Structure formats: C-alpha cells, structure tokens
Fold these 4 entries.
Entry 1:
Amino acid sequence: MNEEISLRHKASVGFARQARELIISRLEDPEFTLSVSEKTSRTDVVTQIDKEVEELLAHNISVKFPDDAIIGEEFGVSGGNGLFEWVIDPIDGTTNFIYGFPAYAISIAVRRTTDLKVLSGVVLDVPRDRLYEATQSGGSFANGKKLAVTNQDNINDSLIGTGFSYSSAVRIRQGEIIASIITKIRDIRRAGAASLDLCMVAAGELDAYYEQGLKPWDYMAGSLIVTEAGGMVDGGFTAHPTEDMIVASNSKVHSGLLELIQPFH
Ligand code: IPD
Ligand code: CA
Ligand code: CA
C-alpha cells in the first residue's frame, strides 16, 4: 500500500477510536444531558455530540494533514487543496444514538482528489466497538477478521437491507418499493445506519442493500468495505452511487435486485 494512504488509514483508525471514547465518556457522565435539534425536517435531527465528534475529527485531520480537504456532514467543506479529501459522518445513525438503539457508527473515508477514488474506509460501530476497515486492494476486516460477502445467488432467497430518507415525499416512494418487493425476497431489514448496512453486506450478514437519498458521508467508507469483501456497489442504474440510489450486494444477486427495483427508477 502506498505510504501516504497507509499513513492516513492508520490515522483514521486512531481518530475514530478517539471519537468513540468521546461519545462513551459523554454517555457515562451522570451530569450529561443530550440536546437534540431539528435540521431539514422533524425527523432529521442532530445532537451536540454529532457536532463535537465532527469538530474533534476535523481538528485531528487538519493538524496531522494540513493540506487535506475535509467534507463533513455537520460543518460542510473545509481546508486543503492537496491530493486527499476526507469524507466523514461523525455519527451515522443519529436517531438510533438518541434512543440508545445499538446501531450507530463513526464513518471516515479518504479519497484521492484527482480521480475521486476511495482509498481508505473506516466504520466504527460505537455500541459494539466493532471496527470495520478497508484499503484499496487490501481487503476488508472487522476487528482484524477478514470479511467476505455471501454466496447467495437467488434474489428470492435474499435478505435485503434498506433505509428511509428524512423527506416524506421520498419515504412514500420507498414504501411503494418495499410493498412491491417484500413478497419476492426472503425479508427486509432496516437497522438505521447506512454505513453499518453496507458493512453487513461486506460481513455476509445481508445479501444486498439499497437506499435512495443517501449522501457521500453515509456510504463512502462502507462502499469500499463492501467491494474489498468481494461485493459490488453502484448507483443501481449508474456506475457509481448517487444521492438518488445506491445498490450494494454480494454481486451474485445484484441484477436480480435491480430487476425488482427497476419499475421505480
Ligand atoms: C442516516 C442513516 C440512515 C439512513 C438515512 C441517513 P444520519 O444518517 O444512515 O440509516 O436511512 O438516509 O441520513 O442522519 O443518522 O447520519
Ligand atoms: Ca449518515
Ligand atoms: Ca450523521
């Protein structure tokens, strides 16, 4: 692995672990009260911890890699005009975090600015303290154990993950897709954190996953973890994921899933 990437990947792991410590220390503080505010809608909320974590990550990145740019969910784009760009979701699964539902993660991707290739991906499952990581051509791992997608080749026997947008208009369309495909697959799962849904495909805990309306910080690190585990990620009807659609799978049921969602494209 290129020295520059290896440096950034190792740093990502350290930064994610430090961010997890911050979250755990806040949750363990008996004086702490969580403040929640609305963003784009009643259902789209943010806590002060999301912001604190992003500040911590951005600070660490800018001190160690001052030429790199940072794109974060809460504070947008900052700094850097160098070769690398960090794409971060400080807490993916904020609704779960607020409820203590055990599925939320810190997601950090590093990509090259010249061709936008994602070179490193780290997703740290905070409640389970499970670190998913991948580097380009280096494989995917969870707490050091190599990951591999399932061998399922029949979409009708597949367990499929998905998620729902914060926009009501998009949710209505998403409900229609579910109603149409639920009788043609094994079952649906909605865990509430896109980065972890992708890691579940990589780990063979889901055969495939699709969602409409994600942002790059939701899927960038998890997508590399899927492809490095032998899976496939695209935008369904485009070569790369877009905010319109992401489809990730073990590759064998990919076309079968696309056929099911095609009528809604
Ligand atoms: C959300 C989660 C959720 C997905 C939403 C995302 P957030 O991210 O990944 O699973 O369905 O589309 O926005 O807001 O918790 O960072
Ligand atoms: Ca997110
Ligand atoms: Ca988030």
Note: The two ends are 38 Å apart (CA to CA).
Entry 2:
Amino acid sequence: MNILVTGGCGFIGTNFIRFLLNDKDFAGHIINVDSLTYAGNPENLVDITDNFGEKYTFIQADICDQEHMAQIFDDHEIDTVCHFAAESHVDRSIVAPDDFIQTNIVGTFNLLEISRNRKNQLSRFHHISTDEVYGSLGKDGFFYENTPYQPSSPYSASKASSDHLVRAYHTTYNLPVTISNCSNNYGPYQFPEKLIPLMILNAIAGKSLPVYGDGKNIRDWLYVKDHCSAVWEIIQHGKEGETYNIGGDCELENIRLVEMICDIIDETQVRRATGSCKDLITFVKDRPGHDRRYAIDASKLKNELGWSAKTTVETGIQTTVRWYLENKNWVNRVKSGAYREWIKQQYK
Ligand code: NAD
Ligand code: DAU
C-alpha cells in the first residue's frame, strides 16, 4: 500500500501516522502531504522520520496545487488516500471563512479530480469528516449516517460540501470512496486553540478558563487513538460508497468537562496553594451559531466492522493532561511559534 495521508502534521493526522507505524506495524509506505499552516507541525513526527525513514516520506505541498499533487500521485504510485487536511477550527471559520472554502472544498475537489484521472491505480479514497455536518440536536436523539445535513458554521458547511463531492464522485464516476463523520477528538498534539488543550494549558498557567455561553452545550468526546483505529478499520474493510459515523458514546456538557480537567490538574498540585483551577472558570460571550448538542450513533461501524472505542473519558483526559504536562518543550514551541522558524530552516 502506498498511502497518501493529507494533513499528517496536524493533530489527528500525526496521531494516525504514529498509530500506523508504532501500533500496527504498517507494511506499506506513507506519503504525508501537508502545506504546514499554523496548525501543521512537522516536529510532531521527527522521531518517525528517524525511525521509519524507509516507510515514511514527508512532502510540503498544498492540496489546492493541482500540478504538484498530481506529480506526487504519480511519483509515489499512490493507491490509497486518507484525506485529513482541512481548516478545522470553527471559531476561525466565523472570523475568516476564505481558507475554509479553499482547502476544505476546492482542495478536496482537486484530490478527487486527480484520483478520478488515476482510477485504475486507486483502491480507496477515504475522506475524514465531522459530525458537525448534521447540525445541532435537541435534548434527545442521535446523528445517524442518514441524518439530513444542516451545517451551522462556515467550517461545517465547507465540510458538508466536501462530503457531497466525495459521494458524488462515487455515484457518478464509481470512485472507490468511503467517508467517516466523527465526533470531537482529544489527545496528544492537539493545537491549543481547541477546548481541551486550551483549558489544560490555561489552568496550568493560572489563566482564565473561557467557557462560551452557559457552558451547557454538549459534545460527544472520543480519544484520538480510537478515531485512528476506526479510520484504519474503514480503509481496510469498509464498503465502497459507504459512510460510517464514529463516536465514543461520551456526551458531556462543556462545563462538566472543564471541571473534570480542573479536578485532575488540582490533584497534580502544579498550582499548589493557589486554590482550585475551578476558580479560573469565566463564562464569556457565546459563539455565534453555537450548536447545542452532538451525539453520534456509531452502531453501523460497531456492528459491521466490529470496531469499538477502547479509551474511557476518565483515562483519556488523565492521559491527555499528563501528556501536556510532560511535553512542555512541545507546548512552548507551539505557543511561541518557534516551530515556524524550524520549518523555515528545514523546508524553505
Ligand atoms: P488540524 O487543524 O489539527 O490539522 C489540519 C492539518 O491540515 C494541518 O497539519 C494543516 O497544516 C493541514 N492543511 C491545512 N490546509 C492544507 C492544505 N491546503 N494543503 C495541505 N495541508 C493542509 O485538524 P485536525 O483536528 O487534525 O482534523 C483533521 C481532520 O479531521 C479534518 O478534516 C477535520 O475536519 C476532521 N475532524 C476533526 C475532528 C476534531 O475533533 N479535531 C473531529 C472530526 C473530524
Ligand atoms: O465535532 C467535531 C468537531 O469538533 C470537529 O469537526 C472540529 O474540527 C473540531 O474543532 C471540534 O469542533 P468544536 O467547535 O466542537 O470544538 P472546540 O474545541 O472549538 O469547542 C468545543 C466546545 O467548547 C464547543 O461547544 C465550544 C466550546 N468552547 C470552545 C473554546 C475554544 C468554549 O466554551 N470555550 C473555548 O474557549
């Protein structure tokens, strides 16, 4: 297998590559293509380059650059695509949607066109998507694979658009696609703009913990490694043309999650004698169009492919807090932007 992983220097892409090489003893070749936006950090994979050089290649490229991407498909005889690359942060999409339209829609279209023109060499195009395409739930109910799309933010609308394109390329051109729509991920290497790493790092630093609105919005949390195992299962055994929901059956109100993080950090005593981290919680202005509740029904994936999440939220959050405490160097370099300088020296 020559697998093109797009966005492999981001949060989930990094974990996926590490999962394939460290946990799965992957036998093929991984070609990681990432344009290295603010969210892409190739330092995440330095040890992978050192230890698995014969199985792993990194190329800095923009998925919107058709010529370059086509060259990569040909040079590396790509037969499998696992497409993570995206602009992923909802708040950024509200302030500046342009890049979301370019990367998430045009970039995906680009990869589909290149794949269509090489259909004979391609055995799978797997598209990574989100539960946010389904919109917001009320108190009850779940998102199923056939729930109608009703995206609320420019981010989720751009992901919905890319899902439709991927599906259309199966229906019209018989491209061997699969799609997965996953709930909120957390774990190591997540950029500290997202709720969990932001709260961990602010709490450690004694800074305010900004909770949007009344804090009662619900997200369905999944440890990133469980997302990676689901994606790998779908790539290997998922049925062409099918969509699979991925989720951990773990609904939590934001405020409850932030309190859990506070309790764990209080126990570590990194802020000894300064009171509980909960004192830092501050309710702030709500996100415009803030979806109230997400909840994934992942029965199809469980029943048809035998997948299940292995990490409980208690263990997962503990592990994540510990990872951020133990990787101060990564945190400092990401927060100070030092990794950007390193990228300039390595790749320019
Ligand atoms: P991320 O923002 O951490 O990483 C995105 C990566 O894509 C970065 O490395 C970035 O440099 C790269 N990228 C962006 N634009 C690019 C371009 N034009 N060309 C090449 N590379 C580009 O995102 P993430 O959280 O790892 O999410 C990965 C995928 O999973 C996205 O498609 C996202 O929609 C989806 N997803 C994320 C979550 C979550 O909770 N984080 C949940 C469900 C689905
Ligand atoms: O559901 C899957 C989606 O999860 C992915 O598709 C997105 O790429 C990913 O970013 C994530 O989107 P969310 O908007 O749900 O994640 P975020 O971490 O930004 O916010 C989680 C919840 O916490 C949400 O209800 C907003 C709230 N929040 C977020 C931040 C950053 C706060 O209350 N305060 C904050 O400072």
Note: The first helix runs from residue 11 to 23.
Entry 3:
Amino acid sequence: MSDCLFCKIIKGDIPCRKLYEDDEVLAFHDINPVAPVHFMLIPKRHLKSLAEADESHQALLGRLMVLLPKLAKEQGLDHGFRTVINTGRGGGQEVFHLHIHVIGGGNLPPMVRRD
Ligand code: 5GP
Ligand code: ZN
C-alpha cells in the first residue's frame, strides 16, 4: 500500500525508533507516547484493520500475540501492560494498517471512564 504510513515505515521511507524486526513483524515506539513505554507491533503484510482479518491471517496474528509479551518484558514492563487495537473510525483508529499498541510503565488509569 503505497499511501499507507506504516507501510512506508516498514519500507524505511519514514524513520522510526525500531525495537524489533523479523520477516513478518515490526515493532517501533509510538511517536506520541501516552505512557513511559508505548510501542506498536505491526504485521509487515498490509492489513487495514482487525475488521478485515480472516483465516489467512490466523498464524500471523498468533505470532504477534506470542511475541508481544516478550517485547513488553524487554521494555521493562514486568508489572503488566495494556494492549489496545483500535479498529475502524468508530474504534478511534487513525492509521489504517493494523497495529497493536503496547502501553505501560507507571500506573495506567482505568481504560474506560464511567462518568
Ligand atoms: P491509532 O489511533 O490508529 O490506533 O494509532 C495510531 C498511532 O500511530 C498513534 O498513537 C500515533 O501517535 C502513531 N503515529 C502516527 N504517526 C506516526 C509516525 O510517523 N511514527 C510513529 N512512530 N508513530 C506514529
Ligand atoms: Zn500498510
């Protein structure tokens, strides 16, 4: 996807603070962190959002999920972390290349305010 921001990051056309890369996956720090640690884990294969996932993505999504806690630990998130996948405009997604936010360090407030 030539006009996709995260595909450009994968290609190296836009720089990022990379923390992990393999043939299928890239992890990099969020440019605008909401907590002391905030990075994103993305598949290199372009997938617009979780809403577009099907059986063909099963192994890849599993790989992301298994890798994620290892990276969180490497980033010092020994006491826990939050994972967020914003999906579609209604879910607050702004970059339409599937990504899992990993957020932690310090004490996170409750995810949803009930007031
Ligand atoms: P979304 O709202 O789509 O779930 O999250 C998009 C995230 O991408 C935001 O947290 C935003 O800070 C991050 N972001 C947007 N542009 C860039 C960029 O050029 N580089 C990096 N590293 N993160 C970005
Ligand atoms: Zn993309």
Note: The helical segments are 5-11, 58-74.
Entry 4:
Amino acid sequence: MSEREPIGVIGIGWVGLVTAACFAERGHRVIAMDIDRAKIEGLDGGEVQIYEPKLADLVRGNSERLRFTTAMSDVLAEARLLFCCVDTPPTYSGDADLSQVRAVVAGIGDDGERALVMKSTVPAGTGQAIRRDKPGLAYVSCPEFLREGSAVDDFLGPDRVVIGADPGDEWASAAVAEIYGPLGGELVHTDVASAEMIKLASNAFLATKISFANEIANVCDEVGADVDEVARGMGLDKRIGPSFLKAGIGYGGSCFPKDVSALKMLAGNTGYHFQLLNAVIEVNELQKRRVIAKLNKHLGSLVGKRIALLGLAFKPHTDDMREASSLVLAARLQGEGASVVAYDPVAIGPASSLLPGIEMGASAAETLDGADAAVLVTEWPEFADLDWRAVAERMASPLLVDGRNFLDADALREAGLTYEGIGRPSKSGSPLTGKVAQG
Ligand code: UDX
C-alpha cells in the first residue's frame, strides 16, 4: 500500500483509538497523542484496554505505522490534519464540557498550515468560536457515527462521511475528503454548523425512533399486539425503514443520552423549547422501570425476592456501562427490597464498582440458580443458547422478563418458563406468524 498523508490523532479514548488504528490500517502513518502516560506506554506495548471487536488486532498489526506519544510537538512535527477525539462530557447544566477541546486548541502553535478535524461531539457554534479565536488554524467538522461493538467495520465502511468546512478552509476539507474517499460511502460536504447539527440530529432522531417503538410496545402490552410484528410491518415502508425500531428497556451508552440532552440544551439556550426531545428522554427513563411492574404482576411484592439480571452492558459486544439500563433497573430492584444477582460476559469488571450490593455470578446458569425471576437486560448471543429447560428446573420460580425481546417466547414457554416480553402478547406467540428465535 502506498504511503499516504500522515495523520495526527489527539485524545486516545475509544473514538481516538479506532480512528488511529483504522487510518493506520488504510496505509497512513498516524501519530496518536494522549496526555495519559500510562495509557500511551500500554499502547506502545500493544496493550489495548478497550473492549472493541477487531481493535486490538488492528493496533498490533499496524504497529509500524502507528506511533503513540504524550507530546503534542511530535504530532505537530508531522501532521497537517489533527483529528480531535477528546471527551466532551455533559456538565451539570447539560451543556457539553469543552475544556479538553480548548486545551487541545491551546496546544497547537500558529506556525504552519494545519487543520483541526473535530471528531468529538460538540454543540453547533463550537467550530465558529475556535476559528475566531485561532484564525490561523483551519477547522473541519467531521462527526463520528461509530457504534460500539462494530466501530471498526463502521469506520472502514461508512454509510456517509460528513465534512463541514467554512470558506477559506477548502484545502482542509479537500484533504479530509481525500483520506476518507477510499473508504466508500457518500461524502457530505457542508458548512461547519450544519455538520455539527447533522451529528446531534442523527443521534436524537435514532433515540426518538427507539422511544417511539417503546411507546408502541407499551400500547401493545395493553391491546395484546406484538411490537416486533408491528415494527416489521412498519419497517417495510421505505419511508420508515426497519432499523432502530426494536423495543426494549431503553437506550443507553455514551452517545444517545448525552446527545439528546445536548441538543435539547442547545435549543433551550437559544430560547427554543424542543418539546419532542423532552418526551424522548422521559419515555426512556420510564422504560427502564417498566420491568418492575411486570415482575410485580407475577411475584407481588419483591421484598426478599432474588432477581437475576442477564447482561449489564448498555448493549451486547461491549463492556461499556455508561447510561446502561441495568444501572437504573438494579437500583430500583434494590429499592423494592429485592436481592439482585447479575452476570455479564464482559462487563462485570466495569460494572462492579457501579453496582454496590449486587452479587456477581460466574456464569449465566449459576446466576439463575435459585432465582425468583430473571430479567434479560442485554441481548448477548450466549443467552439464546442456554439450556432453558434445565434453567427452569433450577430457578425458585421460572419467570423470565425479556427486556430486549430477544428470546424465542414459545420455546421458553415450552421449556417451562413464564415468559414476559416488552410489548409481546403474554400468553402465546403471534397468531399469524408463529415466532421464530431472534438474534
Ligand atoms: C450510537 C449511534 O448508533 C452511533 O452512530 C453514534 O455515533 C454513537 O451512538 P452506540 O451508542 O454504540 O452508537 O449504540 P447503538 O447500537 O446505536 O445503540 C444505542 C442504544 O440504543 C443501546 O442501548 C441499544 O440497546 C438501544 N437500541 C438500539 C434500542 O433499544 N433499540 C434499537 O432499535 C436500537
């Protein structure tokens, strides 16, 4: 592969490391910088602390093109394009904390032609402010749309790449287009403010779709319809599309909750009341708690009951616990007087400190032993492969609430479990299709 333009990546968290590793995989020399010395030393030795499929192999396999450093001067010596991937966590006011972005900008000298390429999620207007404070630095907004668990594939095969730049920075947007072009996907050239909005609006819309599906599921619970059938029928309409209509116990993760609230705040700060997003957030919060009523329906009071949680991470194929529905659910169960035991194939380590007083099981089967009910929180494939007949025999009462509508309801009932989904008829599968296993 021919040598391409060297790239600087600043902030080696999850986005930064995926970006650095994938550009290296595509033949670029990458100088990846982070202020965390221990992290950089670990990465230098090929140690990848983040759980993300394919990432460690990419980091190790491209070590000759991937250089890690704690010195900004190393990045500035080689790269024109500086990909900013630092964290922008929400502040108490709900605005994004831009202090790390500011520190990056302050560390870039005025010498030479350089561009800051913003990957971090920032409020609309950030690019303009940076451009004003640092006129010599070109600015490109190039938001990331990576999903945890499939970030490497998402990066190397994007649906679209958004490249926002304002007049005067054409060279920088052309350089970014050149390095993303070979990955495929439509290049969306636009202005900076619109690019920033595309990111927030996309995530807020996907979160809205999920909350909508969850409300439909809640109505299905009342009228005996099956939300998966409803979503299938809706999704075949090309104007609606099938994705992100999966009902469950709410969305979590590092992006949706943060971005929905950031967009709401951004609008609010301008005096505009974004009513729809208030509902999206509220539906999501209530959805995490709906499991309690489903348990009450079968068990009555939960005081002294042993409830097993299957899965803790905010979604499968990640150990990320940020805004995971399990956090709220576990605390609510404890609040109801239940004792909670939990198992997750990879998230037990990160979850332990966040879930005080919760027993962690060594396996799914062990966790279910003697439980009064199980709640499937994260749709890890291994839960579909459990010997549910044996599980039903070993549980104190064989009740399963499937918080992701992941398992085959009819097969579970046949195995002797009482099955409750979210917006799935509680007695039998759909009369029209007969259900097949999901996932
Ligand atoms: C998301 C966006 O998809 C990505 O483009 C963005 O840049 C970062 O945020 P991610 O947070 O990794 O990615 O996860 P995603 O797969 O989008 O799922 C987010 C949450 O929504 C999960 O908790 C998931 O369980 C939930 N979800 C998703 C549903 O409840 N129903 C669905 O139909 C889809």
Note: Confidence is low (pLDDT under 50) at residues 428-439.
